[in-house]
Design a protein that fits this description.
This protein is α+β, with helices and mostly antiparallel strands. The chain is built from seven helices and seven strands. Strands 1-2-3-4-5-7-6 form a seven-stranded mixed sheet, sandwiched between helices. Strand 6 and strand 7 form a beta hairpin. The chain starts with 6 loop residues before the first strand and ends in a 5-residue tail after the last strand. The mean pLDDT is 95.
């Protein structure tokens, strides 16, 4: 752990600052810049996903929101059926005529996601731009993975930026597949980390 940078589980009161950190963290991400060319529209989308995940008690914060991670634990759904309907409406509101492309992208995320064996799903991980360059995101990830390992569980993520894949590989994730945006402009790598003893 970085000196003075505590890691804790986020609660409901953390929704807005966690959203702010992760929204800013993805300002130059190739996939999400494609999905939301107007970066301000990514914020309500991220807020929706983070709010849905908070109930599982596996959203983590490092320090004063220097970095944050959003996980879905084994046996939990990322979104309820009602939330899936709400997400479609939100994307239609945010993307307008491009909503069908974004909905297709969401379907590709879902189709690529393994159902078994049970695993922890890393939905979002990011570092506040003001705190980049000090390894804080990877420090948070290492802490989270130690907790995953203590349960002898697997982990899964999608990498929206190919430049990040070597960082995940250093932490024992392996690329197991990929899918593209509907126009073929961007590729998302899918990565799996086998269970190990904690």
């Amino acid at each position: 752990m970085v000196a003075g940078e505590a890691i804790r589980v986020a609660g409901g009161a953390d929704l807005e600052p966690v959203t702010e950190t992760l929204w800013l963290a993805f300002g130059e991400d190739p996939l999400w810049s494609w999905a939301f060319p107007d970066h301000s529209r990514l914020r309500p989308f991220w807020r929706f996903l983070i709010a849905a995940a908070l109930v599982h008690r596996w959203v983590w914060v490092l320090g004063d929101y220097a970095a944050a991670s959003v996980w879905i634990p084994p046996g939990c759904e990322e979104l309820s059926p009602q939330q899936e309907v709400e997400l479609e409406g939100l994307l239609e509101e945010l993307a307008g005529a491009r909503a069908p492309e974004l909905l297709e992208l969401m379907r590709r995320f879902d189709a690529s996601h393994p159902r078994r064996p049970p695993h922890f799903y890393l939905s979002i991980l990011g570092t506040h731009p003001d705190r980049r360059g000090h390894g804080l995101g990877m420090t948070l990830l290492a802490d989270n993975l130690a907790r995953v390992d203590s349960q002898r569980a697997a982990a899964y993520l999608e990498s929206s930026n190919p430049a990040n894949e070597p960082r995940y590989e250093e932490r024992s994730f392996e690329r197991v597949g990929a899918f593209s945006t509907p126009d073929g402009a961007h590729t998302v790598g899918t990565m799996w980390r086998a269970p190990r003893s904690g």
